[in-house]
Design brief:
27 strands; alpha+beta; BirA Bifunctional Protein, domain 2; RNA-binding; disordered N terminus; about 525 residues; Rossmann fold
Length: about 525
RNA sequence: GCGGGUGUAGCUCAAUGGUAGAGCGUCAGCCUUCCAAGCUGAAUGUUGACGGUUCGAGUCCGUUCACCCGCUCCA
């Protein structure tokens, strides 16, 4: 998360006034999200989706799948002036562990950490350096943070004070903290500590979950649950190229679960240990990477806005060069689509990252697997005598728009949550009709005079036409006000009510969730009305 | 991992160490021609879990689990 652009939030404080506790209570009450394993006391970092949540999540996933994959960025042309080509993939959660060695995750996800008992600080062990007087085996050693001048200066100062004199650079010896033995660690003073021996032994944080394949528990058969779906795409790059009539530039898209053993799962579903990603790896020539990066960055922002995350709660943030991931250092850049959640406000939390990963991943897999990953581009190269291009072999660059499905759902829920003291439910969920889990409700005004039968006719028609997009509710119990109120809390955009006039002239009342306005229309027009509202 | 807070019905919350309750919601019935109306009734709890002190623990103590906030972390 970041608090960039946080300074401009004074005019709209709608999000800040939304209580995350209230939102979580509604999620439980209406069956959007439950704590996983709740009856056994829960389990940290895992959440289950209830009936409404599951449908909401599916609607968001479907919207992504349809717009990205099936329609190739909603049918628009890419920067090359041609339709954007995307093909789907569904790769395994568990792969050969060498995949994660090649990707850097085995090394990167095992950073040993050191805690300081005195200052309560935590450091990455490989980021800590130590200094002491040359040749001194027993005097105190001072730890400092690598390439942090202030931290180094503080350590030097502490050393001088301990030795009661100012040491010259030549008299000082430095080494990595990870090279220290237990004895030496006991006489080491932490970067933010005054006393020696307050640093713990470096402890590995296993950020990848592992398990074991085969019937026998043998460490040699250790495998990992994927921490990102992306690698499944990279390792299938050649398969797709060889078996599908796609040519660079093109993308491979995939949705699926990923797992990260987060040190501190927090903020409802925002940082879960099991989560679902929606990832595109878009392959293009290095020369075109910058244009494609800009294209994806802009379109992905637009996409989230079109789903209802409009306004100033959504921002696009380009990363500073020094905070880029290792694979993106040399690229055109990385940008995040970020949403201002109640728990991040006035800062923002990441929904999707668009990164230029260069050719890093394909190169890694080419090196580790010793399989050629280069693409033969027959549209490039010098023209041959017969007029055809000579062709060019290269490792494509990758633009990766990687979105968090669960984070998207959470943002949609937070955005939709709208307190309204003037209405019966006191709150309603203002979901965009396209992603609303319940698309419409049909009510007989009273349970007599043939109204339930008539209402059932309409219900049946709507289920047949729209049931694949979401639920069509039918309710004949209790007062009409209660039924409207229930639908408000579930976020159903339109309710259709059959009354005495319906029996006489065939018109029904349509009630709008957001405005609470009511108007009449012929029952025969309802399906057309709903189709238009759902964007079908 | 550290510090602080919280945990009682589906939800929001009460309950001096002394019989576990209310409102809302849910369900059933009556009533009802457009916004949780009205009436009647019903179901729902090992008070997060385990242990201890006590004649007696939702309440006090210990441990543990989960959630929230602040650090930390987030290839």
């Amino acid at each position: 998360m970041t608090d960039a652009a946080a300074a401009t939030d004074t005019q709209s404080d709608t999000v800040q006034t939304k209580s995350m506790d209230d939102i979580m209570a509604l999620c439980k009450r209406r069956g959007f999200i439950f704590q996983a394993s709740e009856i056994y006391g829960g389990i940290q970092g895992f959440w289950d989706y209830g009936p409404l949540g599951a449908q909401l999540k599916k609607n968001l996933r479907d919207a992504w799948w349809n717009d990205v994959v099936m329609m190739g960025c909603n049918g628009q042309n890419g920067p090359n002036g041609k339709p954007v080509e995307i093909v789907p993939l569904d790769s395994c959660i568990i792969q050969n562990p060498k995949v994660w060695e090649a990707s850097g995750h085995v090394a990167g996800f095992n950073d040993p950490m050191v805690d300081c008992r005195e200052s309560k600080s935590r450091y990455r062990a490989d980021h800590l350096m130590c200094l002491g007087e040359k040749g001194d085996k027993e005097g105190q050693i001072y730890a400092y943070v690598e390439s942090d001048d202030d931290s180094y200066a503080a350590a030097r100062k502490k050393l001088d004070k301990y030795k009661k004199r100012t040491l010259t650079d030549d008299e000082v010896d430095t080494c990595a903290l990870t090279d220290l033995g237990a004895d030496e660690l006991a006489i080491t003073v932490g970067p933010d500590a005054k006393e020696a021996g307050t640093l713990t032994e470096p402890r590995a944080f296993n950020l990848m979950f592992d398990t074991i394949t085969g019937a026998i528990r043998d460490e040699a058969n250790k495998v990992y649950l994927r921490p990102e779906t992306a690698q499944g795409i990279f390792i299938n790059f050649k398969n797709v190229v060889d078996t599908t009539r796609v040519g660079v530039p093109f993308g491979i898209a995939q949705t699926g679960k990923a797992f990260r053993n987060e040190v501190t799962p927090r903020n409802f579903t925002f940082r879960s240990r099991e989560f679902e990603q929606m990832e595109i790896e878009f392959f293009c020539h290095a020369d075109d990477a910058e244009a494609w990066y800009a294209f994806w960055r802009d379109w992905r922002m637009q996409w989230w806005q079109d789903l209802g995350l409009a306004g100033e709660n959504l921002i696009m943030r380009e990363h500073d060069r020094d905070e880029l991931a290792h694979y993106a250092k040399e690229g055109a850049g990385t940008a995040d689509v970020e949403y201002r959640f109640p728990f991040t406000a006035p800062g923002y939390g990441e929904l999707e990252g668009i990164a230029h990963r260069t050719e890093f991943d394909l190169k890694q897999h080419q090196t580790h697997s010793k399989k050629k990953m280069e693409y033969h581009d027959t549209t490039r190269g010098e023209p041959l005598p017969n007029g055809q291009p000579k062709g060019e072999w290269y490792l494509p660059h990758v633009i990766e728009p990687s979105a968090g499905l669960d984070r998207g759902v959470l943002a949609l829920i937070c955005e939709a949550y709208t307190p309204d003291p003037d209405r019966a439910s006191k709150v309603f969920m203002k979901f965009h009709p396209r992603i609303a889990p319940i698309k419409a409700a049909v009510f007989p005004l009273v349970k007599k005079d043939g109204m339930p039968e008539k209402a059932n006719e309409l219900r049946r028609e709507l289920v047949q036409k729209f049931g694949r997009y979401g639920a069509i509710e039918f309710d004949e119990k209790q007062s009409i006000g209660k039924r409207y109120a229930r639908m408000d809390e579930a976020g159903c955009p339109y309710c259709f009510t059959i009354d005495g006039d319906t029996m006489a002239d065939g018109t029904v009342t349509v009630r709008d969730r957001d405005t609470q306005d009511q108007s009449r229309m012929p029952m025969a027009d309802v399906a057309g009305f709903l189709a238009e509202k759902l964007g079908l």
